[in-house]
Here is the input.
Amino acid sequence: MTKVFIDGSAGTTGLRIYDRLQERKDIELMILPEDKRKDTAARKEMLNAADIAFLCLPDAAAVEAVSLVENDHTVIIDTSTAHRTAEGWVYGMPEIAGQRDKIRCARRIANPGCHASGFVALVQPLAEKGVIEKNLPLSCFSLTGYSGGGKQMIAQYEAAERDPLLSAPRMYGLSQQHKHLKEMGKLCGLETLPVFCPIVGDFYSGMEVTVSLFAKDVQGGMEAIRNVYRSYYQNGLIYFSEQADENGFMSAAALSGRDDMEITVHGNDDRILLTARFDNLGKGASGAAVQNMNIVLGADEKTGLVTGGN
Here is the structure.
């Protein structure tokens, strides 16, 4: 039986991974007692005894955890930002051409960032197929639920007497130095990083990432984009919807609680909107991590996950 350890199991991502794994019969979850959760020696022992270890930690702690592994068999799936563009690590988005085989054989897998997951899913196939040029300046805005900010932000939003400013959407990443930008550019092969506007809203979970294009910058127009998505997203947890809205609106919470991602294309002959909707804790974090584990184990990628077909 596969031994699995979640380092950082008390955080939002770690808790969701635990929730997805606790009923599975093909793995053994290794649990540290609460008083040992931050004990370096105890964590080291668990990391080295595990077949697969999820790191649900801040960046510095994730780097430290990797340094504690002294064998060549433990597969590490890191959900932090620390290793997403690092040499020797495989980017954990199997829907990108060639990545699934790399993940299957990898010992070091970097889970994608939540915002980056939507952006890469929308842009990478178009850049790869030449539908858009890699030197095309892009802009992206992304709506996310407050659970993406972790326990501290969740407490702020759910406090009985909270700041009234939390009742309206809030932009952040104003300096254009958001930590997901690096992987967004590298994975899509872009020559220029996008202008990126992340926004947190007053809802628990869900994400809606949108990239806007002028049709004149697209080889083949809107139909060419749809054709790429139709052929590209045949397997995995990302799927293309021909038309998906709620009577002219699109809610960022539409896939809350799920682990898959919906891609759509809207617009007209002049201006085009590419949108990815998913759960920031699902395909944006825990769901993607479990999907990567399933690939390593040779299991069906959707095992233990919640998708539209469940």
